[in-house]
Design brief:
Blueprint: E1 7-18, E2 25-36, E3 40-44, H1 51-58, E4 66-71, E5 74-75, H2 81-91, E6 92-95, H3 107-117, H4 122-135, H5 151-163, E7 169-173, H6 181-195, E8 201-205, E9 217-222, E10 225-230
Parallel strand pairs: 3-8, 3-9, 6-7, 7-8
Antiparallel strand pairs: 1-2, 1-4, 4-5, 9-10
Length: about 240
């Protein structure tokens, strides 16, 4: 259930093209999207339809070419590079599909990275990282390096890193792709419990139909556009 009606994310006429001239590849072709505070929004559609580009724009990792995208009232593109980095550090948690874990750091240290960037003392940051790893079910592996973890365990470390600094917006790219059904459901339950509530929102890119039931709404994308937004997985088939 959506617990608030205020808009956390508002995209209007968002476009993004990679390359130029005859090699130009349009990724987003005029996206209009609203994500409400307290909502879990899923973006679904075929590979290459623009889902990852869209969440990268929402998270402030990429700038759109045209249109506007505001996050909790802030037009991120208009911020200076330093202010944009600070805004992301305070407001956004991002779960990358490739995990992007630092190979020389153990699991707790990897989770603690957003806190360390914010200046939290290392001992406190790592302790909070351990706490988050307990919540995602791998607290006993906090000393392990990424190379010593399975793909599913690395994925949970990446999810913990996105949660540890208590961001208002969590953006996830295929967060259950390396997980079995039971573990995937547990991770989705954690994400809902932590990230969805008044003043928070969660946007997930996924191909995993097993977790569609966790969404408040689902936006179906194709060829850089949003075809429709539905409130039930069964409506995707109609």
């Amino acid at each position: 259930m959506i617990t608030a009606v205020d808009e956390a994310v508002v995209c209007r006429g968002v476009t993004k093209t990679y390359g130029a001239g005859p090699d130009a590849v349009p990724a987003l072709r005029g996206i209009d999207l609203e994500v409400k505070s307290g909502e879990l929004m899923m973006l679904v559609g075929p590979s290459g339809c623009g889902k990852t580009t869209l969440i990268s724009v929402i998270a402030g990792i990429l700038d759109q070419d045209e249109g506007t995208c505001s996050v909790f009232g802030e037009d991120v593109k208009q911020l200076s590079p330093r202010a944009k980095t600070a805004f992301r550090g305070r407001t956004v948690g991002f779960v990358f599909q490739a995990f992007n874990l630092l190979p020389a750091l153990n699991a707790a240290e990897n989770v603690a990275v957003p806190l360390l960037i914010q200046g939290v003392p290392r001992k406190e940051a790592v302790a909070r990282g351990r706490d988050v790893l307990e919540r995602v079910g791998i607290g006993n592996r906090w000393r392990s390096l990424p190379s010593q973890l399975s793909g599913g365990q690395q994925q949970r470390v990446a999810i913990g890193r996105a949660l540890v600094h208590d961001p208002k917006l969590i953006v996830c790219d295929e967060p259950t792709s390396s997980l079995d059904q039971e573990t995937g459901h547990k991770v989705m339950e954690i994400l809902r419990a932590v990230a969805v509530g008044p003043g928070r929102s969660l946007v997930i890119v996924t191909h995993d139909a097993r977790v569609f039931e966790f969404a408040d709404r689902i936006a179906k994308m194709n060829d850089g556009r949003i075809e429709r937004v539905v409130s039930s997985p069964k409506d995707l088939r109609s």
